[in-house]
C-alpha cells in the first residue's frame, strides 16, 4: 500500500516538472498520515487521512480527513475540523472550502471565535455557518447563540448575519438577547441589530423588554450600552405590578440591570393602584412625565403640563372613601418601599371635583 501511495506521489511530482504545478498545488500540505492522489475526468483529487494539516492561501486547516479537488479548488474536511484565519478560529464536524469565491461552509456543532485587539472575544455557535472571506461576513443559522465578552452581550435566534469590517450584525427568526449578562435586561423583537461592538442595539417590531420587576412593549427600541439608556417608540407601554404607563416616547435609564428613571413624552398616562390587592383604577395624564425607581420599584412620579388626574380610595380600615378628578400644571406622586402611594401633590391652576364619605 505504501508503494502505491509513494508512486502516486512521484507521479504528482513529475506533473509539477511539466509545468502543471500552479493548477495541481493551490495549497500547501504540512502533514497527513496517509496521502492518496487520484485523477478523475481531468481532475486531480488528493485524499488525506490522519492528522491532516495544510494551508490554502493564508488560511490554515486541520481535520481527521480531507479531500482536495485541485482544479476546482475545493476542499472537503471531515472530523474535528479547525480553521484559522487571522483573528478568526472556526471549529466544526465538517466543512467545505471554495477557494473561488473564497467561501467556507461549516456544519455540525459549529463554533466561531473572533479575538479583538484588547484580547476579549466574540463567539458564535450554530448548526450551520457560512464564512465569506472575500466580503468579511459570517452567516449562521439554526440554534444560533451569539456572545460578546466585552459588552457581556448574549443573543439567541434562528439566523444571524455579522459583517466583520463594519462591526455590524443582526439577529432574526425569534431573536432575543441579554444586553449585559444572563440576569440583565432581556430584549426580544422580530429583528435585533447591533452596531459598533454592541454599543448600540436596535429592536424592530413586536419589541418586548423584560426584567424581574417590569416589562416594556413597543414597535421600536434603541439601546445605548455606554449611557445605559433605552429609547422606545411606537406605542410603548410599561407594565409593573403596581403601575402601568404609556406615551408616544419612552426613555429608560439603567444602573446595570436595574431601572433608575423613565422619561415619558407626549400623550403620557400612568395608571396605578393604591394597595397590593387593589386594581389600577387611579390615573394621571399629562404632556410629560418623569418616573423615578428605587431597587426597580416605583419611588416618585412627576407630571408636567395639561394634567388630568383621577383618584379613588375605597373605605378600608382607618381610611375613608375619597374620590377626586382634578386638573393642574404639576403633579407629584410618591410611593413607599412597598409601591404603595404615600402622597399626591397637585399644584398650579388646580381645578376639580372632590368627593368624601365619612361615617
Helix content: under 10%
What does the average pLDDT come to?
83
Report how far apart the termini are: 107 Å
What letter string, H or E per element, gives the SSE order?
A: HEEEEEEEEEEEEEEEEEEEEEEEEEE
Radius of gyration: 31 Å
Main beta sheet strand tally, sense and closure:
26 strands, antiparallel
Structural class of the secondary structure composition?
Answer: mainly beta
Written account of the structure:
This protein is mainly β and 359 residues long. 6% of the residues lie in helices and 67% in strands. The longest helix is centred in the first third of the chain and has 23 residues, at 2-24. It is rod-shaped.
What is shown here, in short?
The protein is mainly beta. It has one helix and 26 strands. Helix content is 6%, strand content 67%.
Please describe the topology of this protein.
Blueprint: H1 2-24, E1 28-31, E2 34-40, E3 43-56, E4 59-69, E5 74-85, E6 88-98, E7 103-115, E8 121-132, E9 137-148, E10 153-163, E11 168-172, E12 176-178, E13 186-188, E14 191-195, E15 200-210, E16 214-224, E17 229-233, E18 237-240, E19 243-246, E20 249-255, E21 258-272, E22 282-294, E23 297-313, E24 321-335, E25 341-347, E26 351-357
Antiparallel strand pairs: 1-3, 2-3, 3-4, 4-5, 5-6, 6-7, 7-8, 8-9, 9-10, 10-11, 10-12, 11-14, 12-13, 13-15, 14-15, 15-16, 16-17, 16-18, 17-20, 18-19, 19-21, 20-21, 21-22, 22-23, 23-24, 24-25, 24-26
